[in-house]
Task: inverse folding
């Protein structure tokens, strides 16, 4: 049992060196290790968050609809970013009361959700969610109910999911793991970039439906027409 516990601690330290750090200096090697680890866990949690939202939508509304945040695949960066920040800030308290993970998860998730909503509205003139009709909301960007959900996700992630995910990742051979990390990282970068361009062009078409004259605009109009964007972002609202 002691040997297993020692191996687990070593594994988690290798996977996320900053997660339990208090006085350690942020060296370049440590930063690269953290970024590499983040690139491996982000895709998992982006999918996990989408699945949870799909099930909640089915339970609440009786049907399924897209909860993805990107044009390719069942990924939502909100949850990936949340997982990384939760791990860095809360994993050191994993052996303490679940209330720490709960309140920490609620705060981290709510701040991320608010900032991303504000950023989308500022950059693209649109929002993907609106809680203005929910009780105890703040500018329609966050509300108490979903902050509580973030708290529950925080407990599940820190106490249960992350340790299991970490052990699985640590079993991946180092050479293959590096290749897989780079492939996933490049895929997510391209996916995020294309999603941002497609969303920006989607917003432009609402104001001016004239077909694009430039090659990039024509590509976006052909590959990501309104019908497809409405399927990916069924709850999008355009802000005037």
Result:
């Amino acid at each position: 049992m002691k040997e297993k516990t020692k191996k687990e601690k070593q594994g988690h330290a290798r996977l996320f060196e900053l997660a339990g750090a208090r006085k350690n200096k942020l060296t370049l090697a440590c930063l690269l290790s953290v970024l590499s680890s983040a690139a491996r866990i982000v895709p998992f949690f982006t999918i996990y968050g989408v699945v949870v939202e799909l099930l909640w939508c089915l339970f609440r509304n009786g049907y399924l609809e897209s909860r993805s945040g990107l044009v390719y695949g069942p990924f939502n960066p909100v949850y990936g970013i949340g997982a990384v920040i939760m791990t860095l800030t809360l994993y050191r308290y994993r052996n303490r009361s679940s209330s720490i993970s709960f309140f920490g998860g609620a705060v981290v998730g709510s701040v991320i959700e608010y900032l991303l909503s504000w950023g989308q509205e500022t950059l693209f003139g649109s929002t993907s969610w609106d809680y203005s009709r929910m009780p105890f909301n703040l500018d329609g960007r966050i509300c108490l109910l979903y902050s509580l959900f973030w708290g529950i996700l925080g407990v599940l992630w820190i106490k249960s999911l992350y340790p299991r995910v970490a052990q699985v990742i640590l079993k991946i051979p180092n050479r293959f793991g590096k290749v897989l990390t780079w492939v996933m990282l490049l895929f997510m970068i391209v996916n995020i970039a294309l999603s941002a361009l497609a969303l920006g062009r989607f917003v432009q078409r609402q104001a001016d439906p004239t077909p694009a004259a430039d090659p990039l605009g024509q590509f976006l109009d052909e590959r990501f027409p309104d019908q497809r964007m409405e399927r990916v972002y069924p709850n999008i609202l355009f802000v005037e």
